Sequence to fold (449 residues):
Amino acid sequence: MSIQDALKGIRRRYADHLHDHRAQLSNLVQDARQGPDPVAAIEQIRFRAHKISGTAATLGFQSLGETAALCEQRANVCLEAQAHVDPMLAVATQLIGRIDEALGDIG
Amino acid sequence: MRILAVDDDPIILEILKEVLSTDAHRQVSVAESAEEALSMLAGADEQFDCFLLDIQMPGMDGVELCGRIRAMPQYARSPILMLTAMSEKSYIDRSFAAGASDYITKPFDMVEFEARIRTAEQIVEERRRAAESNLALMSLKKQDGTEQQRPPLSEPVTVADVDGMIEPLAFENYLLQLGRVQQFMSAVIAVKVANIAGIYQGCSGRSFRFFLEDMSDALADSLRRWPFLMCCFGNGIFLISVDRRVAEAVQEELRTSLPAALSEISPMFDDGTPIPIDIAVGSPSYPGLFKGRSVAAMIQVAIDDAELKAMHRPRLATKKPLGGAVRAQTQEERPDATAIAW
Fold:
């Protein structure tokens, strides 16, 4: 079996992980806006974005990976400066949209 | 090749397992944490040949795991490839300082990934062959009572348990893995033992290894004020990578404090006489930012400079013949055993 064939099989299983990331990210964006512990929510967004950025492009989801990397970077800035929350949340929302696109591609 | 891949992300483990298993010669085991990996190592019936370690994991991170694996004698020279989405220099520095051999960033470029794995396989295979031929040679020498085998002078040597000392291949990989800007911020300095041929002639395999360890200790001691990585490149050359902003200060420090550090350690021949050491410290070699000098070229320039300095200095006088070997011609007598050129 070629590497590409091996990756195709994983792409289908990756959908389950993306569903989970999507659901969690939606809740975390809400928590970062209105929850009792926005810092913890942003840390979790960063964690999820980090995971997605490490895997998505390997499996062929280039733009999902790039948006995830940007989201992780914005979350880092946000946590360091303790500011710039809204731009980070805008990217996190964009990331959710990219997950939907990827799930549509997987079918 | 038996590979242990460690990552807390099950999808990454799945990718690694699938991709690596496309070659039937590879057996891949996986662990989801550093702790699980360590217990697998403790209970393994058969040794692993190669490790792939994620850096950012909950609990013990990949850098610490790398250090723990490297500390196990059976894995002192096994390829350890770090896998991470982070390409910041501090992580790269920490990984290589902990003993990593190479570094691959996520997401994986499959062509590059496969090439790195093949390099690791070649290393494992070459070492296996070398170990087998060493064993055969040692058994022959045991029969005829001759001394332990001495590695060729030109061969890069791995010196263990010295701060900042990494394998020569890892040293080159480290520089290659730095981004262009980070690479631009680096400098390489070569230190040459100018009379290495004479020292090599006069030493047994054992005492030559001790000498290289002593040299490494003295260098590490002289460099302790700065972050650095170094390797023993063969032919009496030690390569040191430092931040370019401190490179000239490092060069100066080596010129001034290395002789003292060596005198304190006082390397010796097998018969207990001190080894006279003649050192040339090269000038820092820098990469270009836009007209990118390659890493190999940067290293070569550093080596050439140190070699040139070693050649154009008065030869060191020695009072005692080295084990009957032919010695370098003497031009002057020096009271101290260690001399330095720049």
